Amino acid sequence: MSARALRAGAGLSGPRNDRLAGLVPGAAFCRVSLAALAFLFTVGTAAAQQADQPVRIAARPEAVAAETGPVRALDARLAGDEQRTRLVIDLSRKVEFRAFTLTNPYRVIVDLSDVTFTFEPAKVQTKRGLVSTYRYGVFAPGKARMVLDVAEPVAIDKAFVLDPAEDQPARLVLDLVKTDAASFASNVATAAEARGAPTTTVAALHGAVPDTDARPVIVLDPGHGGVDSGTTGASAYAEKNIVLDVALALRTKLEQGGRYRVLLTRSTDTFVALGERVKIARTNRAALFVSIHADALASNDGQARGASVYTLSETASDSEAARLAEVENKADLIAGVDLSEESDEVAGILFDLAQRETKNFSATFARTLVGAMKATGKIHKSPLKSAGFRVLKAHDVPSVLVELGYMSSREDLKLMTSDAWRDKVTGAMSDAIDNFFATRTAGITGSIPAAPAGK
């Protein structure tokens, strides 16, 4: 759909009046900030019915300010009711965006080119009108994403970007209106549309192991990232940042010995789909995959502390393991990934795992890791668990998922945000990895070589 068509759909109020109001007619201003900006709205109703493509709006070159670098999303306002809700986002300059809907559950996705969010965290509005919750962040190199969760079918009545004028910034305006399930379903984006431009290959993003490098490959997987912040444990800290800090510190320790090639599924605050994380391990013929997370319990679920190590199994070892796997397996939904055309490549892997040594190697490393981490802080009363984590389903790569502790526990959170603890726990994890490779049967692919000279 063209920008002209979208402007034509702006109604009697017109772009100028929309700018002056900044919100739904008759509604009071409502600051939405950090999370509020997170969710935008869909390719919907009449607009979406006129064209079967995601909305694309490009700023005219002459309208772009002299500022260079990423566009800054400065502030946002959300207002309206359960029939119509408007989101207005202040921008440092005009930006190109795509908007589309996904179902199961109902979601509205807005992708923005090269945008950095600079909202004030104190001005967070969790819900209003048709918006039940929202989030935002980096989705891919050069792409930011906003994900809007809605409890019922919705569509976009207006979607346009306004030039800066009269000392006011550029603004992205999206009007979300209530619709019926049939109309919503007819306008849901296809998986190809949801993906947008061709994605960079896994090898290009994370490197490929040279054939001449015989060192075992270890893939460290900091959970969540970008638009998916993980748990917060009702604190000011986000899981995605804590686990990334641990992964970066562990990589440094492992690389200092020179015995391994270490890859990270992400080294910055960006989102990586669960399937891509598995592909990174398999594409690079990893000898070990370690996914790093931090858990949290709801306030009414009691108290729990300590680190745990999980391996893959078809049946969860207990109800807590089942709960955690269910939460972690929703990461793609949280980030607005369409799973309708996902490959069923992993089907039958659990059966295959039982036939292979991979499962035994995973269990062996899990026990080794728990033993090493006992000296670094609190260990969960049942530290060895198993469940059906999607991120562990590389059938030919020994894989574990480490929960460093509970962000809902003040004691655990204090440890996980401590530099001294981070140094201690990554030292223990590095020792466990050394012990794991040192005891593997000679001749197995990926067995540890001697440290290079001078290391």
Q: Explain this structure to me?
A:
This protein is of the alpha/beta class. Helices cover 29% and strands 24% of the residues. The chain has helices at 3-8, 14-21, 33-36, 45-50, 181-186, 191-195, 202-206, 239-257, 274-283, 319-328, 331-334, 349-355, 357-373, 410-416, 419-438; strands spanning 55-57, 71-80, 84-91, 97-102, 107-113, 115-117, 133-140, 143-149, 154-162, 170-178, 217-222, 261-264, 288-295, 307-312, 379-387, 399-406. It has a six-stranded mixed beta sheet, with helices on both faces. Strands 1-4-5-8-7 form a five-stranded antiparallel beta sheet. A hairpin with a 4-residue loop joins strand 4 and strand 5 (107-113). It is elongated and about 70 Å long. The N and C termini lie far apart (59 Å). Residues 1-17, 23-65, 197-205 and 441-449 have low confidence and may be disordered.
Features:
five-stranded antiparallel beta sheet; alpha/beta; disordered N terminus; elongated
Would you kindly provide a brief summary of this structure?
This protein has helices spanning 3-8, 14-21, 33-36, 45-50, 181-186, 191-195, 202-206, 239-257, 274-283, 319-328, 331-334, 349-355, 357-373, 410-416, 419-438, and strands at 55-57, 71-80, 84-91, 97-102, 107-113, 115-117, 133-140, 143-149, 154-162, 170-178, 217-222, 261-264, 288-295, 307-312, 379-387, 399-406. With 455 residues, it is α/β, with parallel strands linked by helices.
